[in-house]
Amino acid sequence: MTFLRALKPAILPLATLLAAATLAACSMGGMAGGGSTTAGALSQGLSARMDQPGATLNRAEAIGLINAYRATNGLPALVSDTALDGTAQALANQYAQTGTPPGSPQGLTMKLSAGYATFAETFSGWRNSPADAAGLRANATKAGVAVMFNPSSSYGIYWVLVLGN
Q: I need a surface site. Which of 86, 119, 136, 156 has the fewest CB within 10 A?
């Protein structure tokens, strides 16, 4: 019984996040650009491999998944910001070309990842890292996210998330 009592605080946030991600994925199926989904499956925008020809990151769905996570932590939703998308893309391009993690722009919180093929995998890595999870919960109102694929680089795929106000 003590074991179950100890698990209870961890199960509710996880169950809430899973439910929010599932609902978000299901609701995206009928939207323009959203792929078809089955119950419990992530939408195409979150599970599309970014190392495929013509791959395009669905930024709205990516920010939506981050917002579902933030909601489980009692935080307000982030608004997608085109200027921050541009900043994130420039940093992702630099990261993919040099293989060196870029420095965080002043006044912004930045999360980096490399090697994950999909946004869902990238998000999972961030969520499961205490330092990155803290960044996802940063005091911010806007977000930009980007990905860059460089087949001749060490990791291939490079992800950047920037959060600001």
A: 86
C-alpha to C-alpha distance for 138 and 111, rounded to whole angstroms: 11
What is the rounded CA–CA span in Å between residue 37 and residue 145?
A: 23
Q: How are beta strands 142-149 and 157-164 bridged, if at all?
A: antiparallel
Q: What whole-number distance in Å separates Cα of residue 28 and Cα of residue 40?
A: 13
Q: What are the b/e assignments for 31-63, b being 16+ CB within 10 Å?
A: eeebbebeeeebbbbbbbebeeeeeebbbebbb
Calculate the CA dihedral of residues 112, 118, 124, 127 and round it to 10 degrees. Answer: 30
Distance CA 140, CA 18 (A): 23
**Closest C-alpha among 143, 165, 162 to residue 103:** 162
Quick: pLDDT tens for 116-133: 999 999 999 999 999 999
45, amino acid identity? G
Residues 6+ positions from 14 with CB-CB distance below 8 Å? none
Question: How far apart (Å, rounded) are the C-alpha atoms in residues 115 and 125?
Answer: 11
Q: Is the pLDDT of residue 45 over 70?
A: yes
